[in-house]
Structures are given as structure tokens and as C-alpha cells.
Amino acid sequence: MSEATILERLAVLGLELPPTARPVASYVPVRVVGGLAFVAGQIPLVDGEVRHPGHAGAEVSLDEAVEASRRCALQALAALREELGSLDRLARIVQVTVFVASAPGFNDQPKVANGASDLLVELLGDDGRHARAAVGVVELPLGAPVEVALVAEVSA
User: Fold this and answer.
1) Hey, what domains does the chain have and what are their CATH numbers?
2) pTM over 0.90
């Protein structure tokens, strides 16, 4: 799928790729090995601030956590675009891992992860379908409610 098509689909949804988030620790945002791009975990940042800080099921509603998950997927695409020079090299999304900072008793991690998954499919069609894990955790960096990492197949 072409970058132009992805950007057009974003525009239809009223979205745009955010600025690429800079690492907050010792890692690189994307590492390409062979035909795969591994995107480091993205937390939902807007203007450098964590969007909806806290735990799903407590300070963060399910809808807010889903929105945060979508934001993380957008940031992952932005990181891919920066590393690859263009989303024209993006062949498909292979795997997505979604970590959800969860209050005790919160068990809707798959619904939160659907925010990222559904957006990727909206933007990429069948090339956005992927294997996935949705994991509840006690805490995430900077108090984020969600962190999304992904693996994408890319062309040379």
C-alpha cells in the first residue's frame, strides 16, 4: 500500500501522523533486521505529555484506554515512516503487542488492544491484520495507560 493511500485514509478519519516520539531511555525507536522492522513500545503522547495517565479500570475509562491505544499505533506508524523514509516500504503489520496498565479486576485488555488493531486495519486493509498479544501490567513508563510495540514486514 502506498504512503499516499495511508495518509488519505488518515485524513478521512480526521487523523494525521504525530511527530515521532523521542526515546526516553537507552533504545532506538525502530530496528530493521532482514525484512522486518521492530518498533519499540510507544506510549500515548500528545505535545510531550502522556494522554490519559493512570490505570485502565480506575483513573482511565475503557474508552480512554482504547483512544490511547489508537494513539500508540499512530505513533508506531510515524516511527516507521521516519526510519524507512516513507511508508511506501511498509508491506504489512506482522505482530502487535499491547501492554495495558490495569487496575485490579480489569480484564478488558483485548478491547483496549482493539484500538490499535482496528486502526491498523482501517489504514492498511488486510495488510494491517496481525498476530497480537494483549497483556495487563501493573505499571508502564511515565504513568502511561497503554504501550504498543509492533513488528512490520518491510521491503528493501
Assistant:
1) 3-13+35-154 (3.30.1330.40)
2) yes
